[in-house]
Amino acid sequence: MSPRYPRPASGLRRVALKTAVAGIITVGAAVATQLSASAAPHSPVPVSADRHTASAADHDPAPDLGTVLRNMIVPKGELQRGQPSAADVLKVALSQVGTTADAAGGTKFNQWFMSTPAAQSGAQRYGGKISDYADASWCDMFVSWVGAQAGAPGVGVDAFTPTHAQWFQQQGRWGAIPKPGAVVFFSFSGDKTVGGIEHVGLVVKDDHDGTIETVEGNTDESVKIRIRPVSEVVGYGYPDYIR
After folding, report:
1. Nearest to residue 183, comparing CAs of 191, 171, 175?
2. Inter-residue contact 101 to 138 (CB < 8 Å)
3. What is the pLDDT of residues 66-119, one digit of tens each?
4. Residues of 102-130 as b/e, b for ≥16 C-beta within 10 angstroms?
5. How many CB atoms are located within 10 Å of the residue 89 CB?
6. CA atoms of 14 and 10, how far apart (whole Å)
7. Which helix (H) or strand (E) holds 89?
8. How far is residue 85's CA from residue 173's CA, in Å, rounded to a whole number?
9. Between 20 and 30 A from 10 (CA), which of 20, 26, 62, 234?
10. Which of 129, 121, 238, 95 is nearest to 177 (CA)?
């Protein structure tokens, strides 16, 4: 599916629209505990152009959650006083592993997004309506939800992956290094332009062997840990907790 342009409302339904931490983080089983659904149902519009089915490059089986956490290295100096760290953000994201879409294709991430100003502005921009997000592709809504839950506005809020990537570029927070906690944008078609982005997730760690470990939403209709080849990466957005 091409992500180049979001479709009007009628086509959106299935469009692939605390403490500074250094060294190895061992969070343990507490991370697996689901966050309470304290966030009220939420919602915003045109949908992320994301690829949510597994590709041959997924290299499954992915490592188990405990292994990922034991091996996760967080760079020094990335935490400012009173601000979340990459480890905080990843803890939230990894706590959602196993969350799946309902029978209609929606999730709590869709509902949350629909309640945000981004949903309203997106609906106006693309000529749709907020309810179009209810069962839309949700990889970017998941990333946005994680940032909001962790108190990290620098993650951004969007449902359309190319515009989310452009947002990072406009801030000068775009690059080619897979840092833990970075927002990673993928193209499975080989198109390395921002307009060709199809999917998004968060970097857990760089394997230094041509692959990265990620946590992603809307992959096989659920939140999963993946191992992806860097050849599929278009670029990385660096939230402000990454220095």
Report:
1. 175
2. yes
3. 444 444 333 333 344 568 999 999 999 999 999 999 998 899 999 999 999 999
4. eeebbbbbbbbbbbbebbbebbeebebeb
5. 28
6. 10
7. helix 86-94
8. 16
9. 234
10. 238
